[in-house]
User: Fold this.
Amino acid sequence: MSNHARPEQNTNASAREADRAGQVSDQVCGQSYGQVWEHSLGPQDFLLSSEARESVRDLHDPLFARAWEEQGFAEAQGLPGRAVAALQARLLVRLFERLGCLGTEKRQGFGSLFYRTLLAPYQSSLMQLQQSCRQIWETMLEAPGTVALDESEFVLLAPVRKILATLPLTSGRDIAGDYRRFLCTSQDEVARIVTLTTSGSTGAAKRLAFSVRDLERTRKFFAAGMAQIVGNGDVLLVCLPGAERPDGVADLLNRGLSPLGVTVHALPSAASDQVVQETIAKLSPTSLVLAPRQLQTLLHIFPDKAPGRLRSFLVSADWCDHSLLQQAQKNWQVATLDHYGITETCFGCALECRGKTGYHIRHADVLCEIIDPLTGEILPPGEVGELVLTTLRQEVMPLVRYRTGDAASLRIDRCNCTSPLSRIDRLLGRFAPGTRDIIHPKKGERCHVPL
Ligand SMILES: [Zn+2]
Assistant:
């Protein structure tokens, strides 16, 4: 089956046209969430397809871009595993070039001072990784028929993952202090710096820096993801603390969703539960973006019926007990989405689809690994370990093999929405430092994970 002949049941002609025109989000513009929910959007790779096109352009690699076009990937409604594997392999090598660890930028001394120093002893691993990545994209360029179209990107990237596993891990401790050691661009390119307060009183705060283009990519991801539950005429209230700041989550949602006809409001950071309640009564939003704690409060205030016109919400910013989501779906009769993102990934990372079989990853921006939190050994899909992220396209402050502390596993079975791409399974909590114990945020309990 050629990529052009993907199953028709999930799409329609106008959606395909919109996708070809690069207006992926527009296909749901004007539909209520109910219609969107009813008419499947097709593989959730739509979250990826516009980003993937953009990332190919970002590579400034005419040969790769032409091969991509010739393979029909540029027009693909959803992207087969082979396309994603080739793209991630290309982006990974480009990342190490940008960091100053490979290629011409290494010779010229550009890149991140931190990673150039950290990875200096790993030159042979990096060369192997470059070679392995080249093999993947040469397969795409020269022998397109040799790999099954829908083969999981996880399978195809396995050799690359193996080499990646020989490189050192990084953590929040590394990005505490002077963030300039991490910069791959001049400071003029920095559009926003986010300082993360730490729970301990000792130690420097973590700082993350983003460019206009880093923020723009997140804006597009938010718009495509939220278009699953909002459309023209909807009123969205963003309740997340801190989201109202310039270039914050509410700002990015506003810029992403206004063109779709969604009105976006943000609550001030220190809003009390009463203010949240009053604002909901005043604005009567049809959708919310909120933290799990805020959802819990609202479910307490409105136990049986959704407040006002509420038809959907997205929960983010913290681990969410899924019984809360189920309670809201049942009692409020609303559509729900759970999002996983951390500031280090420029807020957005992975999002549920209506299939509810895990979080679809921004494959054009993030490479996920699961490791044993004690030994650092890579764990296969399905096994619970610590989620480790590599931000493939961040311009200013990319992170390589960054330990999140979050406990999860990867899924490579096909999603209910038909996507063959790997996903992050439900987040289970956080690993207690230096242990394999997962702290369950709700009960504060630890549960030992047999690894
Ligand atoms: Zn899905």
